[in-house]
Structure formats: C-alpha cells, structure tokens
Amino acid sequence: MSREILRPTCLNPIPNTFCPGCLHSMANKLVGQCIDELGLAKKTIVVMSVGCSTMGLRFWHMDMVSCAHGRAPAVATGIKRMQPDTFVFTYQGDGDLASIGLAEIMCAANRGEHFSVIFANNSTYGMTGGQMAPTTLVGQKSTTTPQGRNAAVDGYPTNMCEILSTLKAPSYIARCALNTPANIRKAKECIKTAFQYQLDGKAFSFVELLTNCPTNWGMAPLDTLKFVEENTIPAFPLGVFRDVEKGV
Description:
Number of strands: 7
C-alpha cells in the first residue's frame, strides 16, 4: 500500500481531536510523511508552544518539548546548539509565532539557527477563543473584531514569509496552502525540502501552511476551503521566497 495512504509511523494510531474539517490534521500528516520518508523519527525533537499545535503532544510518536507561548524558537535554538546531531523542528500557529513570539522567530531566523519551522496560519487565535490574530484578514470577523478587521484601527495582516525573506541568514522560506490536492502535494514537497536543508547543514528553514478554522470562522469545512482560495491566498501569495540552492 502507498505511503501516501498509510498513517505515518511517527503519528500515534489514535483519532485526531482537532475540530471537524480542521486542516491541522492534514499538516500533521504531511509532516509525518516527510519524517518517515527521511528516516528521522528516532533523532527528531519536536518543539511546540501554546495553541492548537500543542495537541501534537498526543499525536506525535517522537521526542517532544512543550514550552511557553511564542518561545518555541528559543527552546529549539538551545536544543539544536547543545545537540547538533538531532533533527529539530517547531510546529507553531499564527498567534503564537507572528504575535507573542514575533521577536523570537525574527531573531532565530536572523541568526540562521539550524532548525526548521512549520507555521500553520489559520488567521485566528484558534484555541483561545477566536480573537483577531496578526494574520486575520482585513474585513475578517473575529471575537475581538466583530465588525471585521479595520486596517485603520487594527493594522494590516502580517506576512511572515515576506518579512523573513528580507533577512540574509535563512536558507529556505516557502508558503503553501492545504485547500486542494494540488496545493497539498506542493506543501509536502516544500516541507521535505525544508527538512532536507537542515539535514544538509544549511541554516534556518521555514514553511508556512495556509490552513482554516471552521469553528472560529463560523463556516462549514467545505466553505472554508473556498474562503482560503478566494481570500486567504490573495492576501498571502503562495510561492518560494528563499531557496539558496536555486539562488532565490
């Protein structure tokens, strides 16, 4: 049977507990497939901070560290520097990485730390009540912007790939989406590239995954996929922003 169908061995054989239709489960599967295919499970340390991503503590069958909100890059830095032969990646959401942990991710990327980051961007604080996040779209409603995000009051969404790509040290930066089969296949390719770059000794690698949040968006799961296509992707264009191997 194809590896694309089988559950990755680095994921525990239990049902996921994400909300119905949440694409965190797809992100977990893609990461797991890449870990399996590269044979990394026994040397991997996953670093998670606060958010829906924290549920990985139940799902991942690998060594894991949970840390304070936004502090995953600092903890990953310490682990990788002290144990350089381990494979280290963080799995973070947008409220965690792009707001509370913004200084952490910027400094780690600027130093060119040798770990990888998987950034799940669903445009909301998913676990803590659906508040406006740094990536909430202009006009998008949240519990703290019930009339929709107003750029004149709340500012504009934070485009992390574009910001990080202004730094010299990172080796790979890409943004993908999980709303269609074609985009999912591309996302897996980018994750595997980012992981391979770490294995090759190249500096900081970063993959942003545009995901959804049916619960806090107040939409049926299928409607969220259409929203990602028509609204999220135009605000956060897909593509590779840095690839040192290809001179990008």
